[in-house]
Amino acid sequence: MTTLLLVGVIVLCFSSGDIALTRGMKQVGEVSSLRLAVLDQVGGRAIRSPFVLLGGALQVVAFVTYLVALSRRDLSYVFPLTAASDIVTTLAARFLLHEQVTPTRWAGVVIVSLGIALISAS
């Protein structure tokens, strides 16, 4: 596998995992307090949520793939490329979760994109 393919898997799994976790936690309900009783109640619902379980599994796949990529390439190359997940996640949050993304956040996405372009060119 090439490094870019590995990074693609990382970005796809990490972003999809974040979207699934967000959707699952919105269904589970808000964590209103850090008291043990509240965490136990919400945590019990969360571990039975298909979206939370899917999100967790995708995060594990992303992490294992990240380890494989780091075994093949320098951290200074791989890590910045994985920032593409910020772009994908922001787009997915806007269009799949229907979140409002402010112009300032879009500007951040553009800046991250430029950074990825610079790293890729090296």
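Above is the first protein from milestone M3; the second protein from the same milestone is given next.
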Amino acid sequence: MTKRFPARRRALPRPVAGGARPDPAEFYAALDLGTNSCRMLIAQPRGSQFHVVDSFARSVRLGAGLERTGRLARSSIDRALAALRVCRAKLDRHNVRRMRLVATEACRRATNGPAFLRQVERETGLTLEVIPPEEEARLAVISTAPLVSTRTAQLLVVDIGGGSTELVWIDLSKVPPVERPRALMRLHRGFHTEDTPFPAPKVVDWISIPLGVATLRDQFRDVADEAARFALMSCAFEEAMETFAPYATLPQAEGEEFQIIGTSGTVTTVAASHLGLRRYDRNKVDGLTMTTEQIDRVIHRYLRMGPEGRRNDPCIGRDRAVLILSGAAILQTLLRIWPTRHLTVADRGLREGLLMAQMSADGVLEDSC
């Protein structure tokens, strides 16, 4: 028999009025139910960052078969509900009151997405909010702000998800170098910040491409030859991003003033493979700079391994093995198009962006504006 929790009201972060602000020791939570994974962080503000007190991550494959049927499958829903019950127990255990619980591309696209979200609330008491692509892109930028170099005048943030890939191009040239990482944090107010009294980054363009590691794999899963499938996935992704405005002006963005930050399981897996980590170590991966030659070598090794080799490789892992080629096709396409020799690896993403946006809005981070 399915265990049912009583529904409770979701506590969303709100701007604090009248000089009163939340207790800095209070716990915040961010939950991201994506096309492939369910992930949650519970954290406390600490200085200009936050300290994680509990976390959860599980592959639920919510979008399995979505490309073909347009619906969330019964087995996918069951896996997601099981994961969300664990999240609910953790939220209760830590008495978390300030949280954002979001769903992304799979729930945006599925015809039975609204019914699924009602079932989640009925059976777990959690109210999930389907966020639009623009907010997903913005939160990815916020999460990577601490990794932005003060020398960066032009920034491209790439978030390769399960069901979509977000690209955000930001012009920081008008922002004083020392202010650039902090200025990106102010994007929790939105991409359009012209009315701010502070130096503002300019979002030149952004795009949410409905191709991620799961959806791209599903689209070409019937192509038996791996090399042919990889080439087709690369071509499909390049074609899908042709409307991205900076695509036509790339030669202007070169050298140390141009930085690409990649945030996703694909990027961190490639970094772990490059480092030869038999056991994943976030401290070695987050903030790592890789050259395009190093990334190409890893991707070519993935292709040589074949399916069985990738499944047995400790740097990839069995859950990631079936998706790493589609993610690699996206990553290699991006690095082929943009004239850069380096990529900054970010082991941070939507959850971290949700936490930092909540804490910044509440004014509990040092130097938050």
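Note on the second protein: The chain has 14 helices and eleven strands.
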